[in-house]
Amino acid sequence: MSGPILSVRGLVKRFGGLVATDGVTIDVRPDEIHALIGPNGAGKTTLISQLVGELRHDAGTIELEGRDIGALPTARRIGLGLGRTFQITCLLPEYTVLDNVATGVQVRQGHSFRFWGNVRGETALRETALSFLETIGLAGRADEQVANLSHGEQKQLELAVALATEPRLLLLDEPMAGLGHSESRQMVALLMALKTKVSMLLVEHDMDAVFALADRISVLVYGRVIATGTADEIRDNADVRAAYLGEGDELC
Ligand SMILES: Nc1ncnc2c1ncn2[C@@H]1O[C@H](COP(=O)(O)OP(=O)(O)OP(=O)(O)O)[C@@H](O)[C@H]1O
């Protein structure tokens, strides 16, 4: 078996006296959806921010396909294959759906937000961007202004923009947030279909989605991973059940 896509060892982040991630060790294997769950304030977003380089860690290591990326700036990490979607929608609302995906393509090509150039380049860029929209089922909305999309379509578009950077590992920060039941089911189906194309670390409060998608689940509580295992192992874990007692999230 080949090594993990992502290997995190002993990651620590302190905010003054608060230890937000407290020696987190976790890995994501090739073609795996690894879900990270935990009560509010457990440190999930802090961990994602450390992985992408928006927050510097105080201790520990982060390796992407065996390469230590812990000291690299965010743009370099993206260039090496780290992709992410955001908890709060982060699209350019006044531009079209296609323009937004084109920004992802251009990031991959080493340009940042250059937008449309000469006609030949424009055609190639348009075709590449369209192919990502086809993958996520939004090609029919390519020329629509983003502001006119539903919340569910915007979440799908975020995914297309992230995919356009051609990541080896996709960090998904609450892709189901704010989605209705049928939109959530659509997103689950989409992520399931993408599984063979890209490995994913999924932060999500929607337990139906987590248990439907995840090959393995890690549970973070007060900055520490208290358990990692399959859905069945996590469901039966007494420490995990105790951590969720009284929380809004319900383990199914
Ligand atoms: N910039 C910051 N400065 C100080 N404390 C912070 C900062 N960011 C997060 N924290 C604290 O770190 C802890 C972990 O927060 P974090 O947002 O990572 O949790 P989370 O698991 O993502 O929560 P949620 O599920 O509610 O999004 C919390 O106690 C939070 O208040």
Any ligands, ions or cofactors bound here, and which? adenosine-5'-triphosphate
- Estimate nothing, just give the exact number of structural domains: 2
Q: Distance between termini?
A: 31 Å
The CATH H-level homologous superfamily of the largest domain: P-loop containing nucleotide triphosphate hydrolases
Q: Compute the number of strand runs.
A: 10
CATH class of the largest domain: Alpha Beta
Q: Numbering strands along the chain, what is their spatial order in the largest sheet?
A: 6-7-8-3-9-10
CATH architecture annotation of the largest domain: 3-Layer(aba) Sandwich
Which percent bin holds the helix content? 25-40%
Low-confidence stretches: none
Question: What is the CATH topology classification name of the largest domain?
Answer: Rossmann fold
Taking all residues together, what is the mean pLDDT?
89
Secondary-structure element pattern, one letter each: EEEHEEHEHHHEHEHEEHH
SS element count, helices: 9
Label the structural class: alpha/beta
What is the CA-atom radius of gyration, in angstroms?
Answer: 18 Å
Keywords: ATP-binding, Nucleotide-binding, Transport
InterPro entries: AAA+_ATPase, ABC_AA/LPS_Transport, ABC_transporter-like_ATP-bd, BCA_ABC_TP_C, P-loop_NTPase
Protein name: ABC transporter ATP-binding protein
Pfam family, one: ABC_tran
